[in-house]
Amino acid sequence: MSDSDVFIIPAISNAEPAKAIRQAIQNAGVDSRHVQDVIFGLDELRSIGVEKILSASSLTCSAATVSSSLRATFFAAQSILSYDAEVVIVVGIETNSSTAILLASPDAIGRWNLMPRARLPARSLTGIDSALRAAKLETKDAAISKDGKYGAVLIKELLDELEQNSVRWGMVTANELALLIERI
């Protein structure tokens, strides 16, 4: 593991955001006190009761909302890479469902003996080619690709497909956003 790594531990879908968050924390085996930030991606909704969701999740950390869950994943990864946080939850919220993705740093994985599902080796705001160059990959290396506006859902679906098909690399895109995911 490198200090420049960000890892996905679990990715959980549930109709209720608070339940998805609690289940992600439980599945990861992380004490909720170690979650330092929650970033909500509002893929469809314009406003939500963030404080109510955090309270129902038994979290006391800070939270932010952004326009999409894929962008929220970018912010969470950057927070970890800049050593501002070690454990961050991204929550994608749609009309009738939500997906919680717990991201962790290499230090958090080692300290709390977490089991990562995948690594986020590259992301780009300027398209697929930039992300592939950053990871030193070619288009053919990303065997599975998902495109659309529901980033957190697509990340979970991609993780499931990578594991089911024993494929190493995949990519999630939305407009010019591109996120490469490596199955571990």
Strand order of the largest sheet: 3-2-4-5-1-6-9-8-7
- One letter per element, helices H and strands E, the order comes to EHEHEHEEHEHEHEE
Number of H/I helices: 6
Runs in which pLDDT lies below 50 for 5 or more consecutive residues are none
The figure for the number of domains is 2
**Percent of residues in beta strands:** 25-35%
How does the overall form come out from the CA principal axes?
globular
CATH superfamily of the largest domain, called what? Thiolase/Chalcone synthase
* Share in helix: 25-40%
Rg (CA only): 15 Å
The description of the largest β-sheet is:
9 strands, mixed
CATH secondary-structure class of the largest domain: Alpha Beta
**Overall strand count:** 9
Mean pLDDT over all positions: 91
Instruction: Identify the CATH architecture of the largest domain.
Output: 3-Layer(aba) Sandwich
* Class from helix and strand fractions: alpha/beta
CATH fold name of the largest domain: Peroxisomal Thiolase, Chain A, domain 1
What is the rounded distance between the termini?
Answer: 11 Å
What do these coordinates show?
It is a single chain. With 184 residues, this protein is of the alpha/beta class. It folds into two domains: 7-112, Thiolase/Chalcone synthase (Peroxisomal Thiolase, Chain A, domain 1, 3-Layer(aba) Sandwich); 118-183, no CATH class. It is 33% helix and 31% strand. The protein has six helices and nine strands, in the order βαβαβαββαβαβαββ. A nine-stranded mixed sheet has the order 3-2-4-5-1-6-9-8-7, with helices on both faces. A hairpin with a 4-residue loop joins β4 and β5. The longest helix is centred in the last third of the chain and has 14 residues, at 151-164. It is globular. The termini are close together.
